[in-house]
Amino acid sequence: MMQTNIDVKNTPKIHVQKDFLVVEQLSLQLENNPILNNISFSLPITGITTLIGPSGAGKSSLLRCLNMLYSTWGGEITIDKTSIKQWQAGEDNLRKFIGLIAQKPAIFPASIAENVTFGLPRKQRKQDTTTLIHDCLIQAALWDEVKDRLNQPAVSLSIGQQQRLCLARALALQPSILLLDEPTASLDPRSKQLIEISLRRLAKNMPILCVTHDLEQAKRLQGQLIFMCDGKIIETGESQELLQNPQKLETREFLRWEVCDCD
Ligand SMILES: Nc1ncnc2c1ncn2[C@@H]1O[C@H](COP(=O)(O)OP(=O)(O)O)[C@@H](O)[C@H]1O
Ligand SMILES: [Mg+2]
Q1: Which residue has its alpha carbon closest to ligand 1 atom 7?
Q2: Is pLDDT above 60 for 12?
Q3: How far is it, in rounded angstroms, from Cα 199 to Cα 36?
Q4: CA of 64, nearest ligand number
Q5: Among 118-127, 172-181, 253-262, the range of highest mean pLDDT
């Protein structure tokens, strides 16, 4: 069901690229404060990239730039070589292709099934969505726990289940890229494990960028690792290698103490 091709009216045809999403010299100021400084990296067409760094490093701000929740950034962000600022499909459509999952699950006061289809256009919601709901809940590793109560209120679910429901809702829009901001920070171990399994499976077909405070999680998720501090990227590498053998002093300090003296 996942597709890496972005297929929307008026958007350029997407061809599979090695570097699907490319960020070049990204900078951001908020209220005259520099928040991001000269950020450059790319996400390959598939696989997980984890983003670590101390509180206030700019990780959430970076994700917000990537899906245009912040649009006043400088530099360039391209998806398949097309600047996201030039997308004729508009920001709302862009956000369908770049799913963003926050730390705290945002659940709508509706049933479990309705929460999955919440982001779909009305016309599509009125069609038979049974298969879509099933597929998305399977991919989000929630189906077995909710299959007999799809019409019950979503608020009755545990926080861990709600977070997986948010993942299912993002998947219903068939995103081409998934961004997750500390998605398992306050979850029970079982939900955390199920989300990690789900992300590793999804990453076979799409790029995923996941912010985490959990270094063990970064190790388990594998793939590329980016260490950010004070609005800058300090070091990037293969996650196991970088965690075991960091090259920069700042990274070593952070891995040792989970704090940093960059600023
Ligand atoms: N809306 C805002 N206005 C001004 N400064 C902000 C705003 N949002 C975040 N910041 C500042 O930007 C910096 C980076 O924040 P954030 O991206 O949330 O970091 P992280 O997710 O790594 O903890 C922090 O110093 C924070 O105080
Ligand atoms: Mg944050």
Answers
A1: 30
A2: no
A3: 27
A4: 1
A5: 172-181
Residue with CA nearest ligand 1 atom 25: 56
Structure tokens at 150: 């799809």
Domain ranges of the chain: 19-257
Q: Is the pTM of this model over 0.85?
A: yes
Taking a C-beta distance cutoff of 8 angstroms, is the pair 15, 172 a contact?
no
- Mean pLDDT across 3-25: 60
pLDDT digit string (tens) for 174-187? 999 999 999 999 89
Average pLDDT for 61-65:
97
Domain topology for 19-257: Rossmann fold (3.40.50)
Which residue pairs, CB below 8 angstroms and at least 24 apart, start in 7-10?
8/89, 8/93, 8/97, 9/89, 10/88, 10/89
What string of DSSP letters covers 197-235? HHHHHHTTTSEEEEE-S-HHHHHHH-SEEEEEETTEEEE
3-state secondary structure of 22: strand
Q: How far apart are CA 131 and CA 158, in angstroms?
A: 24
Residues whose CB is under 5 A from ligand 2 (ion)?
Answer: 59-60
Asked if 56 and 229 count as a contact pair (C-beta separation under 8 A), the reply is: no
Question: Across-strand partners of 30?
Answer: 33
Q: How far is the CA of 29 from the centre of ligand 1 (A)?
A: 10
